[in-house]
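Task: sequence in, structure out. Protein: Aminopeptidase N.
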Amino acid sequence: MSTIRTPRRRTGIAVAAAVTAAAALTGPVSYATPAAAEKPSPGAPGLGDPMFPLDGNGGYTVDRYLLDFDWQAPKTPFEASATIKATATQSLSRFNLDFGGNTLRAVTVDGKAAGTARDGDELTVTPKSPIAKGRAFTVKVTYTADPTQTRHRDDAIEDYGWIPTPDGTVVYPQPNGARLIFPANDHPSQRAPITFRITTPKDRTAVANGKLTSRKNVSGDRVRWTYDSEQPLSTQLVQLAVGKFTMVDSTGPGGLPLRDIVPDALVEPTAKYRKLTPAHLTWLEKKLGKYPFNRYGILVGDTDLAVALETQTLSLVPKADLLGTQVDAERNLVHELAHQWFGDSVALAGWSDLWVSEGHARFYERMYSEEHGGDSFEAAMKAAYKAHDQWRRDFGAPAEPTEPNLFKRMRYDGSALVLYALREKVGDATFQQIERAWITKYTGRTASTQDYIDLASKVSGQDLEGFLKPWLYGSKTPPMPGHPDWVVDPVT
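Result:
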């Protein structure tokens, strides 16, 4: 997510402790005889992430989502279902899904009606019979979706969930708004492929992550659009939009399929900057290696939200970003494209690792911008250095955010500064080796802050833990290598 504009809720320590205790009580039971069957027990209601301790769920992994949406009209509820193919990682007496705000109709497990209970965003499902560890099972949830449901954060995210447009809707799922769209294992470390089937009136187009595999006329002058995400993705990276769109197809480096999804009236006004995508891809591939997915494109958001999102293979970019100056447009476009490597292909192990994703996107955004008529990268980092102690106090250290401050300035320029310091420490050639090695090792996987520290140490041939940890976790900003004249402003 990019935040060129100045960004416009509570720490869950007690809840995290409760979740940890619950997980300990509901974990697998050990028996003296290995062949003995595991006693069924409830899956944990959350993964215990310090930012959102009840996000995600224990006891199973999702193998695939199949989402069916019978979209009707702007701001109008519609019938929906989610079919979740999963595998039990423990013997389950019951399990949870993250699901908020929609009207629940029915839940089945392997075709049989299941018991349900709702508490906030937790949907607890009790199957007719326990599910043995290692067994595949299928959950189907039918519900009424409300495409006006939003939530608000007092940081760069602003509003998220279903975001209405003049003739349809787009989705802002970050950080944990996917549960407003469909029942899910809603944590960035939990990845699965998704099949979308979206039925619309014939005068609307539906789009989603990945590849359009089918467009079929159905009864009543309606059209069913089917998309396959192709690769697994985290729920925070889901995109699903309906509107009066034009699909603009082209190709990128090496014949990469490009498809922009543009509101009809904005096709020509946004064309100049959208056509820069091949050049952006070429520039980033020289830095990071081959683009990690099968296709890419831009979804132009016809909303007033000043937030762009790195939704996988189809970045959401607000129309205002594409109707202003080229320098500002390219900063956002390169930022979201860089996320396809950092945060999308290499996913977050936990929300405290957001600095890796946003820091890298801002780092390459600013580097590109300097080379193409924008502000000095060094000057931007010097300004971030001056403010870093204040940001540490107000927003938490780069890798130690609190939930209300997750998407504040520290995760952007403040985290890019950590990478800038690392480059100054090891030199540009070694830094580039670290970046390439990170992508090579973790593409298609999740990775953590400690993984980054360990890999940087291995590639550089020096123990960087003592250097990086104060930058990432300390209460005071360390000296900037190579810049003894840089000073930090006093905290006020």
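Residues 5-35 have pLDDT under 50 and may be disordered.
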